[in-house]
Amino acid sequence: MSQKGITINTLDSGHVDASDHALLFNSLFGECGVLSIGNKLELSKLTNNKIRMLDGFYIMNNGVSIRVEDFEDLDVASGTLGKKRIDLVVAEYVKNGAQTGEDTAVIKVISGDYDDEPIAPELVQNEITRQEKIATLLIDSTDMSIQSFDAKPIKTMKDVVRFLSKGDGYVEVEFDTD
Asked: What is the rounded CA–CA span in Å between residue 94 and residue 97?
């Protein structure tokens, strides 16, 4: 069980940093989401306080990527009888994490507030921290359920079923619709 930011800024010399890979991933994929690798970060409920994310690869909008190698068990805060809340599974990038000089990139659960009609917590989007929603969880009293998997799949070359020539050197790519 492990996850890791594939390329993050580090104090160690000789490493490609996040900005180098961000340019590369943005030029290759042009969007954020889950690559069609492994189990595509599939989620399952283990208990009311734990979900399991299977292996896969998430690329954030800023190009930072996070890989879950085998699986990752994520803790969900306990619910309260008679109360509801919405939690989110997010990809989170923190630049210069805790002033150490090293960036961090992880997938984690953030808790919402209790309400009769709960709303999802706001994602942090600033110059230091960026969060992107992967999935939505509903906590109803002490019962947790996975409401939706919100990260979209990113089509890659392995999803191509045919290339169509459009003349003048342009090629249109047709993807598998699965």
From this structure: 5
pTM above 0.85, yes or no: no
User: What type of residue is 35?
Assistant: L
- Cα distance between residue 133 and residue 44, in whole Å: 17
Q: Of 34, 31, 17, whose CA–CA distance to 134 is shortest?
A: 34
Taking the C-alpha atoms of residue 32 and residue 81, their distance in angstroms, rounded to an integer, is 36
Higher-confidence residue of 73 and 170: namely 73
Which residues contact residue 16 at a Cβ distance below 8 angstroms, ignoring those fewer than 6 apart?
7
What pLDDT, in 10s, does the model give residues 101-151? 678 889 999 999 999 899 999 999 998 899 999 999 999 999 999 999 999
User: Which tokens in the block code for residue 43?
Assistant: 């989620």
Residue (of 147, 146, 162, 154) closest to 57 by Cα position: 154
Q: At 57, which helix (H) or strand (E)? A: strand 50-59
Phi and psi of 104, rounded to 5°?
Answer: -125, 145
